[in-house]
Write the structure tokens for this entry.
Amino acid sequence: MTFIGLVGKNLLRQRVRSVLTLVGIAIAITTVVALGVVTTGMKSTADDFVTSGGADFLVAQEGAADLSFSTLPEDIVTEIAAQPDVASVRGALLHVTTAGSNPFFFLSGVEHEALASQELDLVAGRLLEDDDERGVLLGEKAADDLSATVGSTVEIGDASWIVIGVYRSEGLWEASGGIAGLADLQEVAQKPDTVTIAFVTVTPGASPTVVADRIEQAVPAVVTIADADEYSKVDQGFVLVDAANVAISLLAVVIGGIGVMNTMIMSVFERTREIGILRAVGWTGRRVMRMVLLESLLLCIAAAVVGALVGVAVTRLVLLAPAVQGFLDLAYTPDIFVRAVVVALIVGLVGASYPAWRATRLSPMEALRYE
Amino acid sequence: MSELAIAPPRSVRAPDFEGPMIRCDGVTKTFEEGRLRALDGVDLIVEPGEFVAVVGPSGCGKSTLLNLMAALDQPDDGTIRVAGHDLGHPPDLDHFRAVDVGLVFQLDNLLPSLTAVENVEVPLFTTERSRRRRRRRALDLLDFVGIADRADARPPQLSGGERQRVAIARALANEPPLLLADEPTGRLDSATSARVLDLLESLQRERDVTLVVVTHDPDVAERARRVLHMLDGRIERDVRDP
Ligand SMILES: Nc1ncnc2c1ncn2[C@@H]1O[C@H](COP(=O)(O)OP(=O)(O)OP(=O)(O)O)[C@@H](O)[C@H]1O
Ligand SMILES: [Mg+2]
């Protein structure tokens, strides 16, 4: 018999109790994993968006409550373009509306000339031209969802658009959204002479950070955003999501920890006499403590494995809903699973520390006399 | 009864002390904040190889004395030396419990979730790193006490006599020079207790183990070379070769 074998036997004695505790911790771990997968996916989608069309960063209105509420006068695009080391600026009007099964259809309006520099990967049709009346380019996913091909007419929000081209994109919002002419969209969205944001590409060799800082200094009332973390400049969403993530992980630790502690206290309590026997045959208090801690850790690691698998399964199931596919991407990065294991280990240690201490606090004599 | 083929773990040193196996000087133990005097100045010397029975009415302090000798508890006053160790100045009482003394209680002193052989392995965890050697020695010990065929049975599946044999095998795991037993035949019928006593006696006779047995059982007292009669926390009479 190995030490681990002994620990496993102890866990198997109260099978139902061990399994219920495992389920409790696994649920907490599932939550941690599912949240992690969703938020990491959201961030990577946001990152893709910031750098879409080869841009290095984007410029938005300072103090806007949300990126979609940002409003910049169209002239600002020219002003930014005049800054040193700026290779190109693409003003974009963002219009989020419904189309087909997608409740968050992302339609962005850009100048036809800027479109050319965006290096769109067209799979059908052509780019927008000045004579196109209400012409739209659709991402592949959007075209699929709307069953649209080049030449067909699609309903996006309240307006009708003619599909001029279909492009392929890695970015989720782009792939399941569309691109329209800036003037057309300004008219439809009733936002004349304004853009929401501007995508900036710096000249090769120039540092995007330096250029971004310079723009924030030189152009009044704008902020620059280079990645998902900088969204907090205009959008508290990610900050809230991050905070919720931490809070829920903590809650998982607390709830899981209480569950484990309850189980371990009961099991140590019931085995007081047995612990007395172990001490009487020469086991040190440390060895007994190690046994109790290992029981708890084994339980929590098993729960982490179960919880992570269920977390992956649950998020994959959610993604089966077509409405979700258009705006939610999932990312299964290693750090999510590392976090799950760390949470489980903390739960195991926290939950077992008091019972383990209690197990060794009694003298062998007291433990043996315990009824 | 076969001889043990597997040697005790290497980390177990041979007893290398001079003088008595047990020496108690003025040992006093009180409970309930001093109101209850369980032991009241016990002086006692037990030489290596002796077979001593401790008898006396219930509550006279027999178990308390045995537990102090096993370093499960500390006296309030007086000194106890066992196998050359002063139990008042413990360098390592855990190690003492593991290798210098073997304990057998009345009943229910096995771990119920472990098989017989696993129960015997338990004390070997502290002295033997190799899982395979632990197992081999435990099996050998079960063979020695005559229940090798029950090695994989768990305590609830064993008879009282078989359980006591497992407990004795476990007490012998690290080959201690001293075996302390607290009413080892207390719940056994007379035929079974006779067999357990044969085993204990053979240990003392053939392997030179010092035996101290607390008992109510006149049969046990009869076999012992020396009987200590206790009353109210004191040794009233010390009778040799009764
Ligand atoms: N841990 C303890 N706490 C309080 N009182 C104790 C404790 N251990 C023993 N006692 C008391 O000390 C006295 C001696 O107890 P002990 O167990 O040594 O008696 P005993 O001679 O073994 O009796 P029995 O033959 O009934 O087993 C008893 O009055 C008992 O109640
Ligand atoms: Mg007693």
Remarks:
- The first strand of chain A starts at residue 57 and ends at 61.
- Residues 111 and 304 of chain A are 51 Å apart (CA to CA).
